[in-house]
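Students often ask why we bother encoding 3D structure as a string. The short answer is that it lets us treat folding as translation between two languages. Here is a chain of 76 residues written in the first language.
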Amino acid sequence: MALRKLGKDPESPSGGSPTIYLDEEKDSYLVQGWKVEDDERLGQMDIPGHESVVEIPRRMVQFFLEVKKDDEAPDV
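And here it is in the second language, the structure alphabet:
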């Protein structure tokens, strides 16, 4: 299984920034982000025990949109 790196947070100064990947085989995204540990925020979500939550900055949505544009491009 090969993951396609879509992009890293363009404003991350350390290089260890949040990153978005596409698993084309499973047709799903993998998101590396900041682990959410704030009990107040977690309490507002219904998270099953086999799932977790990570946070990414809003500016990273552009990477999801790029894949959508790729999918809509006509075959040549």
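Translate back mentally: The helical segments are 39-42, 61-72. Keep this in mind for the problem set.
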